[in-house]
Every structure is written in C-alpha cells, then in structure tokens.
Amino acid sequence: MRIGIASQLLGTGLQRVLQNQPECEITWIAQNGLEAVQKCETDIPDILLIDPNLPILDGAETTRRIMKSSHSPILLVTDSVEGNAAKIFEAMGCGAVDAVDFAVNGSAEEREKSTQNLLKKIKTIMRLQQFSVRESKPSALVIDVKQANIPPLIVIGASAGGPKTLSAILSKLSAPCASAIVIIQHVDRDFSFGLTEWLNNQTSLTVQVARIHERPQAGHVYVAGTNDHLVLTASLRFAYTPEPRNMPYRPSVDVFFNSVAKYWPTPGQAIILTGMGRDGAEGLALLRQVGWHTIAQDEATSVVYGMPKAAKEIGAAVEVLPLDQIIRSIQQSVTKNTR
C-alpha cells in the first residue's frame, strides 16, 4: 500500500518503521499541512498519516482540504493523546478515520508497542474500504413489555467526520430530555474518554461512557468506550463483547444495532451519520424491519459518504436527510417524548 506522511516531528520515526514493512511504500513525506495538500493534488496515496500539530495548516485544516478533493483515508498520528485530544477530535470531525499514539521516546518496549499499534491501525483502515458486514441477523425480536422506566431510545452510528457532526447535533439538544441517546463512534478506546468529555462540553445533557451493567436513562448520552463491541443485553443493560472478532469496525454499529433490535421493547429512532465503509447499514435495516424510524445522512452534508450511502442502497433508511433536518427530527422526537 502507498502511504503519505505529513509530520514535521514524527516523519523520521514513521519512515523508519514503515520502510521495514514489505507491504508498505512511502509515497511522499510533507513537512507541513500546505505541502501535504499540494502533494495530494498530484499524488493521492492509499492512506495518509497526519500529525494534528502540523505547521502552516494544522491537522484539522489539512484534513478538511484533502477530503474536499480526495477520500483517501486519514490516520492521525500523535506523540501525546491527552495533550492533543481537542485537535484530534477536530480533525476527525473533518474526516480523519482514526488516531493512534506513536511513541518517539520511552523504553524500547513502549516504542515497539506503539509501532505494532500503528501497523494494526493501518491494516484495519485498509480493510475498512473493502469490508462488508455479513454477520447473521437476530432471528427474533425479544420484547418484555413489563420492563419499568424504559425511556424512548435514540441510537446513532458514526465514523469519519462523526465528532464534529455529533457536536452539531448535541449542541442543539437541551435538558430536560425524556429520551436516552446511545452513540457508536468508530474511535480507539484511548480516545473514547476524551471524546466523551469533549462532547459533554457541547451540550447541557449528560454525556458519559457506557458502563457495563448500566441501563440507559432519560437525559443521558452514552458513548461506546472500548475496542470491544457495545451491546444491549436481555435485561436492557450495557455489556461489551469481543465477538465477532473478525470485524475491523470496533466498536461496531451493526453489532449494537442488532442487539437493540433484539432486546429493546419499543421502537425508537436510529441514525447513520457520516463515515467510511458499510458498518451500520444492515443493523439499520433490521431496526427498520422491527418498526424503528431510521435515518441516513445525505451525501451533501456527509464528510465521508460511505456508511449512509450503504444504508440508502439497501433500503435501510426511512428518510435520507441533510444534517440540519436530522437535528430537527431528533429535536421533534425529544420534544414529543418530553410532553
């Protein structure tokens, strides 16, 4: 695979690692964001590694400009997850697929671990472009109408471009809110707590990582928080599972949506937002089959038109809407349920 690198500080270390991988070819190395944009205009690599702290144009602006003319997947590479969380989420909102911590200092063991994490991320992202979910669907909808205090549920799946889109949605919602909202955003567990904290600052609702054995509560927004798949159990509580192991999407929107279709007693609202690949399309179709109101984001307002396109193509979405209308639909749903 052909790889482009945009980093002033990490370029040498990334080059050293990748040149020892027979399947990797370094196409070019840019020292700043503007140079990376210009190189992409004439030579688009299979995958881009971008430092969020680029000079001239930072990682977010570089990502935004590249995504306007190319859908080459972008992996953010940083030497400090905690120190760059805000910049990472901003760049992911502009279309970056994922982020990884790459250690340039530290012990040999730490450097080797970060190298393996980097290579794993690269391979996963390349699989995302080809992967189509073929997991078996739940055979039946299990409903326990006697469950007490079950709030209306809104479930959302997102990937590349998701953080910024989710921020736009949550910033328009306010307490009191009778619905519970669960978000599956493709993001590494190292960034899930930072993403949750960042989203929590965008809304008056309570945004938190979904915890094992916890049941969705009205007025709360839950974000999947590990590299395992978030699911709902028969007791309507959260759990995490490593299965299916062969899925590159972690956490998977399809896996969560399937569990919701199987166990949640009343239909709610399910939404697929911007993202690369096909994750969530089949789960959305299953939710539509059991009575949920399903929505896919339109192409014009999607940063990456992969997941919502797949949902549209298989007829999973009741509606295909631009972002502003998706926000309005959620607001109407929340207002209706609050009355």
TrEMBL record:
It is an enzyme of class 3 (hydrolase). It catalyses: [protein]-L-glutamate 5-O-methyl ester + H2O = L-glutamyl-[protein] + methanol + H(+). GO terms for cellular component: cytoplasm. CDD domains: CheB_Rec, REC_CheB-like. SUPFAM superfamilies: CheY-like, Methylesterase CheB, C-terminal domain. GO terms for biological process: chemotaxis. Keywords: Chemotaxis, Cytoplasm, Hydrolase, Phosphoprotein. The active site is at S159, H186, D279. This is protein-glutamate methylesterase. The lineage of its organism: Bacteria, Candidatus Moduliflexota, Candidatus Moduliflexia, Candidatus Moduliflexales, Candidatus Moduliflexaceae.
